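Give me the fold.
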Amino acid sequence: MKNNLKKILKTLLPIALGVFLVWYWYTSTSKEEIDQIIYYVKEADLFWVSASMLLGVFSHISRAIRWNCLLEPLGYKPKISNNTFIILMAYLTNLGIPRTGEILRATALTTYENVPFDKGIGTIITERVIDVLMLFLIILLTLLLQTDIILGYLTTIGIPFSKIITLLLIGLFGGFLFLLFIKKSKLPFALKLKTFLKGLFDGLLSIFKMKQKWAFIGHTIFIWVCYIGMLWVIKFTVPETLVLTTSELLVAFVAGSLAMMFTNGGIGLYPIAISTALSIFGISKVSGDAYGWIMWIAQTLMVVVFGAISFLLLPLLNRNR
């Protein structure tokens, strides 16, 4: 009973947080500002909104092809169309219940392509590790390109450079001690974590052993270029953001990517994170909020529409299975 309650709370917490953040944004924004934001959203150029959605679709197709790079060494080669439908279904499912999409992906792959569940979930975990690594690399690139601006902003809000360095050193030292503890410990949770970390490391190494490693790396880069492109083209929908450079938009991209981790599909938090990041470069709250909401609506609409179509088409095109 307690375990079920914990699972329900874990499911509801991101949804509740998203609803609270929407309410917080609404109550902390004046009526005049909301009217202006709604105007920007309604008047957003559909060409650029459609381009953003199309880039999202391309990223999912590329992800479907990349998935086969992981599955082929295991002796399986699913249809690219099935992979694409399954991935879109998983993203739609994650909007409702966090992290259930991964289970759905592995289950659907078993149902329609006869790939054992454990092997399917293993490739999905490997994908997630690579995606986290790519996000980490983009964060590093962003810090290198916008070091002065970011440090200046942190100083203005009361976080001096010396404190940042101190926190980083403490974090690195703490992480080193924790990994050392995990390596030496015989406690059940430590052994589980050690096995998990080993699996992640093995997953990373498997990339360099696969026959299509360059295809895998190429698709990985293409997927993340599409993600950044989805955000970049939206700048043409809000007049004030036309002057933003790609390196400046990377700051917003990182902020939005981190926001997606804490609420279902970034609801509530994503527009706030985008607006806050853009304010560093002098973009007004109204334009920043409008930018964030247009981007969130575009990508959410893309997932909902194509995810729903995938739920219908996948069983219809695979009736024999």
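The chain has 13 helices and no strands.
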